[in-house]
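## retry 2 of 3
previous attempt timed out at serialization; input unchanged, resubmitting
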Amino acid sequence: MSTPKTVSFHTLGCKLNYSETSTLGRLFGDAGYQEVKFGEGSDIYVINTCSVTDFADRKCRQIVRRALRLSPQAKVVVVGCYAQLKPKEIAEIPGVDLVLGAAEKFRILEFVEHLEKAPGKGMVQAGEVKEASNFTGAFSFGDRTRSFLKVQDGCDYKCAFCTIPMARGNSRSDTVESAVANARKIAELGVKEIVLTGVNLGDFGNGTEVIEGAKPKKEALFIDLIRELDRVDGIERFRISSIEPNLCTNEVIEFVAQSGRFMPHFHIPLQSGNNRQLQAMRRRYRRELYAERVAHIKSLMPHCCIGVDVIVGFPGETEEDFLETYRFINEMDVSYLHVFTYSERPNTLAAEMPDAVPLAGRRRRNEMLTILSEKKRRYFYGQHLGETRPVLFENSTEPGRMSGFTDNYIRIDAPLEEGLINSILPLKLEAVNAAGLMTAAGPGASQPFGIRQISSLFS
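## retry succeeded, writing output
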C-alpha cells in the first residue's frame, strides 16, 4: 500500500480564514491526503493569507521559507485575501508554486493534482474578484473547542480604508437551511460553541438594503438566521463574532437578551468616536447611533461584554479628533478594545487623502488606547468578582494550564485537567491574576480552582 500524500496548513488573519482552512482540509482529506501539523514535513503546504495589516507580504515570505526548510521539495500554495490582491507579487516569492484567488481557492484540488515544483515563478490562478460570486460554506473543527461557522462572505460597503471588498467580492450569504445543517454537523462532532463569522456578518441576506428601506424584505435576514440556529439541538452556545452598529439592530439585541444559547457578548466596530472622521472613513453610522446601541445592550444585559474596534491615525485625524474618540470610548460602558494603527493600503480612497498623521503620532495614540483597553477589561472583570458563571474549558498555550471563557467572555486561567476540556462548568469568579486573567473556584469552594474543586463538582 502506498503512503498517502500529506498536506499542511498555516492560517493568517480572522476567524473566517480559520473556517475556510478547515474546509480546505476536509477537501484534501476526502481526496485521500493525510493532514499533518505545519511543523512537520509535508508534500503540500497551503498558506491562507490575510490583507488587513501591512505586514502581509513579510509574513507570507517568512512562512514560505519556514515550509521549505522543513520540506525543500514540497509544493507551496498560497490562497486568501492577500493572494487575490497581490497574486503576481506572491508568485515571485521564491518557493511559491501556485497562487489561487478568491474564486479559485475552493477548487484547489483541481490545480494541485498535476502541479509541478516551480523552478522559477509560481503559477497564478486568480481571476477578477467579481468572479467570486458564489457562496461556499465553511466551518472549523479539530484545532479549537469552538467552531467558527461561516454564514456570509464579501462586502458591499466602501469604507475608505478597507481592501476587503477587493479581496472577497460582493456581499453574499448562505441560506438559513444550509447554515442550520452545518450547525447540526458541528453538533454531531461534539462541539459545544459555535462562533458565527462573515466579512459583514449582519448583512446576511443583504440585510443592509432591507434595514435601510431600499427594498422590501424578500430574503431571510440575520435575525431570522439566529432564531433558527437557536433551535439547533446539541449546541450549547452561539457567539456573534463582529457586527456593524447599523446592523446590530434592537431586534437582534433583544433576541440575544432573551436567548439561552446566544451569549451576552457583542463585538461592534466603532473605528472612530469623531463624526468628522466617521464621515471621511465612509462609515454608515454616527457616534450617536453607536452610543444608543451600547446603552440598549447594557439596559437589557448589564453583564454583557462589548468589544470595540478602533483605528488611530486615519488621514486628517487631529489631536483633538483623537482625544474626542478617547473621551467617547472612556465614557461608554464597553469591555475591551481592538486597536489598529492606520496604514496606507493601495487602491483605497484613504491612501490618497491629505494630512497624513506622522507614524510616531499613530503609535502614541495606539498606545494610549491600548492602555485604556486594559483598564476597561480589568474594570469589567472586577464587576463580576464573586459571581458564579458557566465556563467552557479549552487548551491553553501555557504548559500545564487550561483556559476558558465565561458566557460573557471573561477569560479564565486554571491548572490543566484533561478530562474537563470541552466541558462547561459553573465556577465562582475569585480574582484577577497578574496576567490579567480571572482565577476561579468550583461552586462553594474557597480556594483557587484545582483538582480538589474539580472532584467536588462531580461527587
